[in-house]
Amino acid sequence: MNFLLQGLRFRRKHKQEQTNKYLIFAPFALREKLFNRISEMTRIVIVVEMSRVVMKDFTDNQIKCTYIQDEQELTLLENYLKNDNAAAMQSVDVLEQSCIGYLFELGSNDSKEESMFTNSLMHLVPKKYPLIGAYLSFKGVYYPVYSDRKVNKPLIQWKKPIAVVTDWDGYGDAVMIHQQIQAFIDDKLKEGIEVHIITYEKLVPLYKKLLKNCKVYQAIQPGLYSPEHILKSGIYSHVHRTSARNPSELQHCIELCANALGYKKVTSFRKTDPNQIDKLPEEINELLVKTKQTSDFMIGFQYSTQDPQRSWSKEHAERFVSMCCEAGIAVFNLAPVSEPLKGAIDVSSLSITELFPFISKLDIVVGIDSVCGHIAGVVGTPSITIWGKNFPHITDPSNEQGGKLFSFRVLSNNYSFISEDANAENIPPSIVFNRMLEIQSKRLKLKEDRITGKDTLNELGIEWVRCEND
Questions:
Q1: Domains and their CATH numbers in the chain
Q2: N or C: which end of the chain has fewer CB within 10 A?
Q3: Residues forming beta bridges with residue 238, ordered by sequence position
Q4: Does residue 469 carry a pLDDT above 50?
């Protein structure tokens, strides 16, 4: 769906929901303490700097406004918000002094839609307050800042850092592009320039493990709006977005990332050292050694995810595992499932970073389009991908010529099955099992070097399936 249309529909829905929107403003001396109190209750916050306060600017948008003049009143804030006890707080129509204000929302508990809630709130800021930058909280989160104050900023004599906004939100996306981002960090370090990575909350720990010699921060909206308020903050000399696209030709995600960072081509693709990412628990190492002694070879397997359209059925998964067990092949279940998978050894409790060294010790990874396959692609383990609702490339539906935008296929050593009707159920376990044996015996050779967008367009290592369930 078009992002702008999606945002418009969300704002319409948002107006009808029973959420409470507040503007709490105070002298600048209370800036940090007030923000810390509010950020403990919500992450949907907009910072508004006001040269003078006119409450009508905000109350017309059904925003509840109140003024806190000192630390004593700050202690009453929680009671005011929980009980909506407006009588306990000050009401000011006009205030002829500079203030810091925090526009925020309570009652929106869906963390998956935080960026949409924040975007909706941004549309309630009066036009007299232009977007001027970003505020970096002590928790390492960027929030947009609006202001009508004219502040003379000092001339900066040192080199400003550069920001890289990773506005793809998947773990697999981070795995695919991290090497190119690291090359960029290393190049800028040679110039004496620091690089800051700005990403989604869930990806912060992963990027901190994957990337060296940089700082990693979080933005509530790493997507459409972040670069503007982060660039206007004056903190950075430049802001790169990893998803900048060239619709004229199909490119892989890592190729798009390289272009977005100013490179004409991918400058870094090599085997990731898994032991530099994380270490395996000793009991898992012992399990691997014991299993290898009693099995012909070992595979990692993931058949489902939260999206049922990208998943194989449990029946297909059980049939595949049964075929492996009969052939003396050990199967490790890599991801959480609702019910135990008979015949498979469950290691789904491993963290994403622990999967790097684990997958590097396997012979093959078989599974749906997910992070496990992408990890295999960077640690050198062959993989088979079972595609469900997606293809290994994205097509722009608004392009009448069917222009392809980008590929998010595993980076190397990959064989992909695609059902013509984008239904994973039409990819039978038997054909996946047979190709797996061919890969293991080297009868079917995979590309060990990086799989490019053109490789995918030319269907290298891709097999289209038309058959029914077997």
A1: 3-147 (no CATH), 162-260 (3.40.50), 274-465 (3.40.50.2000)
A2: N
A3: 162
A4: no
